[in-house]
Queue: 3 jobs
Job 1
Amino acid sequence: MRIVFAALLAAASCAGIAQAQMSPPIGAGDVTTLDEALAQAGAASPSTEAAGAGIRAAEAGRDIAGLRPNPSISFETENVAGTGPYRGIGESETTVGFSLPLELGGKRGARVGVADARLSRARLEAAIALGDLRLYVTQAYIEAVASERRLAVARDQLRIASDALGVATDRVDVGYASPIDRQRAQVQQINARTGVERAERAMMLARATLERLVGKPIAGPLDTAWFDRTTLPASGPDAPMPVEDTLAFAAARADLGIADANVRLARSQRVPDLTLSAGTRRIEATNDQAMVFGISIPLPLFNNGRATLSQARAERDQADARVRVARIEVDQQISAAIADRDNAAASVRASEPAIAAAEEAARIARIGYGQGKFDQIVLIDAERTLAETRAAQIDALAAYHDAEARLARLTAPAPQLSGDNR
């Protein structure tokens, strides 16, 4: 009987090792790779549409900034509806005039400069939106693949627990073990079944999240080979990353460009504008006509633009400080992503021998328990260690790919835009 138990447990061990190497596909169809998911998400994402609309709005704002002030036509009648000789319209004077504002101080050019800076920022926002979308889709893809792998491990653990329950039942029935062994095995099976249900829900949620980003259902399996493939970094420090060319730093620099342009605009608005006017006047009493000319200029008594200029300069100082903050934050984020990647790579590197050792320990524990050499607690501990080691490998692979995705997003080169303030 012991030989039969040992044979059953050894067969279960071999089957468990073989099944742990496989991740069964969810549905029939071609494999959906990460590149395909990224391409589909880029075509269906509302964030890219919003970024495109932002560029069109900034381009329209650039056209508006280049427009000159509209002229105006005036019609004026004097000396009517009064008393005495002014009772009727016999003494009226009618003036038809034309006035044209003249902008001074370079206001139009300053407005165009602000609009150009905002257009550059809008184009940069489009690049940032695309980079963020790629990161979100990649992270969703990683989680979807990892959830499939966790589900495969959970199902394997449920099969192992069911086999262990059968062996424990047989040992109890023939009097080789205490009934408490069967109870423990039943608890392990219940926990394993609950783990499968939890893993199934997590897998469906991860799939749904990825499908929402992609914009359509994904019927086929995902690229698990990509998930297993890692490029482990070599030992030694990495080369410094170019912080100045990253999207986050370019965004802060673009905000500084807008602030500089606003300072120039505020300075130009301190120069008063002129309004030239010309018209013709008809005198009803003599039926004569005369020309009327005029010029007007506002008096900067209450608002001379000094407060507006001070505000613009303060906002420029704020934007300049944020550029320095962005440099520090981006450098810290890159360093953290590199550290996370290297730590995950070390865990992936150690997971293979760890899993091999855990599988061998579980195999020996199954055989030993079947032969009555080991207590059931030893078997349960060995199975738990194997499950935890497999889960740790999946977590390490997911953490590695996530760190790689974050690093790619952080170091993505910014597009070259006009008006960069380096």
Job 2
Amino acid sequence: MDFSNFTDYDREKIVNDMCRMIQCKTVSNIDDSLVDWEEFEKFRALLREIFPNIYSSCEFFRVGKSGIVHKLSGSQGNKGHALVLMAHYDVVPAEKEKWTFEPFAGDVVDGYIRGRGTMDTKGTLCACLEAVEIGLKAGWKPKQDLYLCFSGEEEINGDSCKNIVEWFEEQEISVDFVLDEGGAIVENVFPGVSKPCAMVGTAEKGSVYMDIEIKGNAGHASAPPKHSALGLAAKVICQIEKKACPAALTMPVRQLFKIMSKNNKNPLLKFLFGNLWLTKPLVKLASSLMGGELNALMHTTCAVTMCQGSKAYNVLPSSAVIGLNLRLLGSDSVEKSKARIEKIARKAVGKKAQINLKMVSQNNPSIESKTDCQQWNTLEKVINKTWPDILVSPYLMMACSDSRHYCRITDKVYRFSGMFMSKEDRAMIHGVDERISLETLIETVRFYSNLLVEL
């Protein structure tokens, strides 16, 4: 069955539905009192209105604070096994004064739907549901049990997705495939490679938010000590930035380098990344010297993002606080990173200084999902069917997604948004003037339609 050739009615409905989704101001916040929960309920009611075939065919469950789960039973009666298509419907705030249009306009201008959430990630959510709705209307039914799972707390690292995974465990449901937001189809992904590439995240780095507090003696700034608390904090910052973690090659990065070398037109790069057994020390050195994305792919990174001291120019701070964001690679862990940072900090400030480390938020790196399995082969086949003549590669996601929670119950979690994203598009995610082209949205629906047929 093929239901990826959309009628004019289908196209018009897809665009109109997406516009209405964007007009729901589902902005999440760690502080519940600052969340407009009526907008979240408005969004959930909208889904029931615009996807009647799904809601008349599925079992529906509310899970956790904002999780919504739709179950479509498989025709093959494989009870207990599941396929999961997921996304999130909460969005980050938008600074209205910086936008050139209303952030929740949900209008169409010059071939683009405009508004917060178009790229991250109501576009993916809309495309998934539109494909299922059109399929059901055409008589399609999933072979295996299919779950459509959406959270409204992803942007704040909330518990709704974690609660959904716990619900799967309680129901004793075996999950065989998970697809979430993540990589996209990008051009100029690698020096020497001319073909666009679909980047499918098969693992993601861990993330740690950490505060380091350095105690000091408060007083008047006219008679300062040799090092104020903030001065000691500066010494800690310098040492943290100086002492980089050793480089390592995880499996997703090895696979990426292999595909990029195989398709590379630059003989030197083809050799360098295609013979890691020989050139690995050079690649590691290059990543450290170049910094940026190549460095992040091969290192646990630590970014100093915040520093607080006194609130007055003439007052010595009683303490200084440094805010860090670590992205953990592969076999690294929260415990190892905390011990490493504490060792660096204590050495920098000396034995007499008092310091305290506080873990604000923490999660370890995800497991690496399989690529030598039917699920990966199916995903790769569908990508090539939707966008012929592009490369498909695993890669390591440096951002965090809700899908990491599913790694507790399956090793087949894939992170791919199913759309082309230019450098400009990627910059709009969490940025200003976010928008998605009508062509991109329709192609993403086509991708999900092709996927449903193959699953």
Job 3
Amino acid sequence: MKDTGTELIADIDGVEVMRYVYRPDTPVFEAPKPYIHPLRTLRGDVVSAYRPHDHPWHKGVQMTAPWVSGQNFWGGGTYVDPTQEYVDLPNNGTMRHEEWLSPGVERLTWWTQGGEHWIDETRTLTVEPGDGWWTLGFRSSLRNVRGEELEFGSPTTNGRDMAGYAGFFWRGPRSFTGGTVLASDQQGGPEMMGRTASWLAFTGKHDEVDGSATLLFRPAAGSSPDGWFVRSEPFAAVNPSLAFFTPVRLAPGETLERSYRLVVADGAWDRARLEAHIANHP
């Protein structure tokens, strides 16, 4: 990977497949944090969205959290409870890049808007090339340094029905709206919202160029989501939520580990192709 001093760029056979912006120029209201955009297939087609008008804090692929003991590291308003719903509060935190410990291994710190240091994170990114596909490996280790318990939650844990987004989040291009969702155990479609599955895939169509792309999300052992946050309408998004229905509590000094593999493939993969890939790449 090439390091520009603000971005980490991954190239496969002359195609830039990923740009990881680790020193972003982001307004406080959007909760500054590293993000991946553009994310591309091996053909060079973009499969991520950046600052869409409906949610400008959505930036490609991010590891983030809308509720951490009352602080918002997601961006935008905070869902407080069903009586207040979303409220703009002075609680939009920041994730700061501190250093690269080794190639692809990053040390970050999470700070509240009030200037308190709550979390130390070690994040690892890997890139594995394939035949018509490539895999992004993403591992996050979050250590509570606040001095008291941290609670990771979501709008659903605060009372909003079926809005349990939290954690590793992908926002797809506008052309992917209305795309196809497939998941393990013969599951699929919009009813995957809030359900559990060992894997989930999203296929969408490109604008400007003919063709489609498929993104396959695979949480590692020990990282199974509390429920999948997934939409194809009114926009494309996938998130193996770490706190869809149930808050995650982290005691002082304890560490929360999450790990994912995201396969980015050219073409519209059907269930047979997805299951064959998973069987051949356990």
